[in-house]
Amino acid sequence: MKIRTKLAIAFFTIIIVPLALCLITWLVLSQYQFRIIKDYYGIETSYDTFSDSTLFLNRVTETLYGEIERDAKNSPEVFQDRVYMDNLNSQLRNKYSFLIVRENDTITYHGGSEIHVENLVLPDYSDEEDVGNRVIMDRENKYILKQVDFLTEAGKKGSAFIVTTLGELIPEMRWLLRDIILAMVMILGCTAVILIAWIYQSMVKPLRQLQEATHKIKEGNLDFTIIADNRDEIGELCRDFEDMRKRLKDTMEEKMQYDMESKELISNISHDLKTPITAIKGYAEGILDGVADTPERQDKYVRTIYNKVNDMSRLIDELTFYSKMDTNRIPYTFNKIHVEQYFRDCVEELSLDLEEKNIELAYFNYLEEDVIIIADVEQLKRVINNIINNSVKYMDKRKGIINIRVKDAVDFVQVEIEDNGKGISVRDLPYIFDRFYRTDASRNSSQGGSGIGLSIVKKIVEDHGGRIWATSRENTGTVMCMVFRKYQEESNYE
Asked: Has domain 330-485 been given CATH number 3.40.50.150?
């Protein structure tokens, strides 16, 4: 749910829901008060009557007014009975009214104390038949006056008055308003609590989680997880933040791994450089000390020094290439290469050196002469040299054999370099193209190695759009397989 939708819902909840609940509460409580009024006053009431205190107070005395009217017509002598009038006045007092009786111009009974007789404007006696139905309201003194006229047995003119005082609000109205206010406070309070809890759960809590996550990242701690269940913008922000955290963690782990690999590389190359340097130093001292006292021995010493220098140069070259490979700054110069002739030249160039090491190099071509690939001559030669040097390094047979086969694979050229060396274990085979990976056998051997030779091979082959893999059997040999896409001239048809 979007934040805009949540705000709209919150606005609707704050405005509409309380109003609706208050209206319902008003209806329920008013109906409840109507029932109380009916039971207590014996009158039917409505919202119009209930809201108008004058109209309401006028109606609450209708029953007693009817009784007074009947008594005045049938038994006017009751207005001389003090007990009768006290009882009648007591009933009127429960209805916010009191009784006044007048004979001629003399007040014979006054049942109220809140309004003095002097402050009342009492109408004169009237012979009209409907005089008892008159309602006189003095707005200034705030009272309602109902009059019933009668004649005593002595012929005196008498009047009975029901005086109803007008307050600001009748008690029932005050009670209703009190209940309505309390209900509104409770409704608004509950609505506010619910909205606060909802907003906190959906907005404040995720923001606080983001704040805590930011603090942890600032402290260098990335080992936490941001859980985002919301589907709004804040939820999306939390998920993006979590992705950023994962990437930062991966980057940090990669950096740590890179630092470890770099240290391992430096350690490996330092070890591999130390060995030829030690040998060079020993053979040079032998020449200086006159140990190489014959031309044959001198030639041997010089050749050994030369070979060790070549080994050092190769290690330095690998290190230089590795730095370029790691930053994707390998210089390539792609050209068309005739596959058959290129590999034949490579075999001829390598044969003499391998022959001195008692290793036979054989070349088998199964391609037509005009097959062409797009490749960098020097980098492709680096691939071949690294693979063959690896085969030579771990050759354990008295008579070594290396076969290079070039095959046709439909749209591709497949190159296989096979040796009869010690082979690679099944456990190590999936990892031989990883950086700095060396098998236990190689790690314990005197040959050493930087551990980046085959990773360089893989990088170059893939940059040529090719693929490389290996198969091997321990104590039998290893086959390195590479495929490159053939170059095909585009034909134009009219």
From this structure: no
